[in-house]
Amino acid sequence: NHGDKHSGETLTLSFSLIIKYFIAGVFASSAMLLPGISGSFMLLVFGVYGTLMYAISELLHFNLNALPIILIVGFGIVTGFMISSRLIQYCLHQHPTMTFALIIGFVIGSLYAVFPGFPKDLI
Predict the structure, then answer these.
(1) What is the pLDDT of residue 110?
(2) Which of 51, 91, 111, 123 is the most exposed place for a label (fewest CB within 10 A)?
(3) CB of 37 within 8 A of CB of 106?
(4) Best CA proximity match to 95, nearest among 103, 105, 107, 83
(5) CB 93 within 8 A of CB 85
(6) The dihedral of CA 47, 40, 24, 4: what is its sign?
(7) Residue ranges of the domains in the chain?
(8) What DSSP state is assigned to residue 102?
(9) Measuring CA to CA, which residue among 68, 69, 70, 83 is closest to residue 32?
(10) Per-residue pLDDT for 15 more than 80?
């Protein structure tokens, strides 16, 4: 476990964890660009959210050992924004109806998460 529970624990990164954190950042930023999908939920799905929150709290306590995790996820987020924004722009220009339908589907699907008692027969 990479520091989720112990504040004095040293954070070690293997190559596979670096790739995992980077990809999690890419997917999180992609989710942030689309309505109805949460970037933090994507970090939870990848199992990175707890570690990232721990790293941020350690950085706030001036523990620079946590900085590599923040930089890796941050680089993934920046990369994801650049790729996703261009991909969304391309889809909106080439396939506007399908793209808007997908976005509306994300928004409608997120209603169940935001309003758990939302009646399903309304949609």
Answers:
(1) 77
(2) 123
(3) yes
(4) 103
(5) no
(6) negative
(7) 15-122
(8) H
(9) 83
(10) yes
Question: In angstroms, how far is CA 73 from the centroid of its own chain?
Answer: 9
| pLDDT tens digits, one per residue of 48-93 | 999 999 999 998 988 888 899 999 999 999 999 999 999 999 999 9
pLDDT of amino acid 23 = 96
Query: Which residues contact residue 70 at a Cβ distance below 8 angstroms, ignoring those fewer than 6 apart?
Result: 52, 55, 56, 59
Tokens 């190559």 — which residue? 15
Can you read off the two tokens belonging to residue 49?
A: 């959210």
